[in-house]
Amino acid sequence: MRPLAEQTILITGATDGLGRAVAGELARDRAHLLLHGRDDERGRRLLGELRTETGNDKLEWYRADLASLAEVRALGDRVATEHERLDVLVNNAGVGTSIPGNGARMESTDGHELRFAVNYLAPYVLTLRLVPLLAASAPARIVNVASAAQQEIEFDDPMLVNGYDGWRAYSQSKAALVMLTFDLAEELRDRGVTANTLHPGTFMPTKMVLQAGREPVDSLDTGVAATLRLVRDPELDGVTGRYFNRQKDERAFEQTYESAARARLRELTERLLAG
Fold first, then answer.
1. Phi first, then psi: what are they for 252, rounded to 5°?
2. SS3 21
3. Nearest Cα residue to 65 out of 125, 20, 8
4. 190 burial via Cβ count (<10 Å: 0-12, 13-18, 19+)
5. Beta-bridge mates of residue 145
6. How many CA atoms lie within 13 A of 171 on its CB side?
7. Alpha helix locations (H) across 29-144?
8. Pairing state of beta strands 193-199 and 140-145?
9. Cα separation, 37 vs 163, whole angstroms
10. 62 catalytically annotated
11. CA atoms of 182 and 144, how far apart (whole Å)
């Protein structure tokens, strides 16, 4: 891997929580950071804070609402157009089990169940948009921030129109993200791009967790260390297609390894994106 000071790294969901903390550490490493969020005011404030905290001026802001696939595509196209290289893509942005919506079912701009849209469809579209740039920058890494909360995808009702439950919606969206990671690892193995996923920590004290009324279990530092390891640890050069629970290499939910289920997910994804 290249020295971090020579790397360009895109982090989605960088304005608070885990993404904000990871961005701060990588800014101290002098990396060139492309920082994503959906609020311009918070984005400008983030750049100012990080420049003051770290002295790093290699920081750029990218606004996009990941609940809109048109904005996701525009984000990917803008990054690919404006940069000659991308060493790491960290798909960190997501929505939790109850906020927004207070437990009610919500839909994205495109009419898809919101958690499936933001936690899975958005990183799917963004990553595929950026694969050519990542491959041209090889060795490169894709890091997908998933969760230990993984449940079987309900292929007969993937948008959970019937009997909606926020925890199930969140859990199946994270299982889908793990499946995407494993597919990417296989597809990109010979192109110098690795793809790994992780559960950074259980109920860390982030806004998502606190707003859901959960009692924190792990510290934010736990998640930051686990995520940074996948971004910058030279011992993981060439390591791909793995799921990590914090920093431990573990086995994900069984359905994520099933070739038939992953094929069904790809078919479902193509259908949703075409619609």
1. -80, -175
2. helix
3. 125
4. exposed
5. 198
6. 15
7. 40-54, 69-82, 114-116, 122-136
8. parallel
9. 31
10. no
11. 11
Could you tell me the domains of the chain? 4-274 (3.40.50.720)
**What is the model's pTM?**
0.95
As to burial, measured by CB atoms within 10 angstroms (0-12 exposed, 13-18 middle, 19+ buried), residue 161 is exposed
Out of 62, 120, 124, 170, the active site residue is 170
CB 208 within 8 A of CB 186: no
Q: What is the mean pLDDT of each run of 10 residues along the chain (275 residues)?
A: 95 96 98 98 97 97 98 98 98 92 93 98 98 98 96 96 95 98 98 97 64 66 95 97 96 97 98 91
Q: Which of 139, 143, 165, 144 is nearest to 154 (CA)?
A: 165
Q: Is the peptide bond before 158 cis (omega within 30 degrees of 0)?
A: no
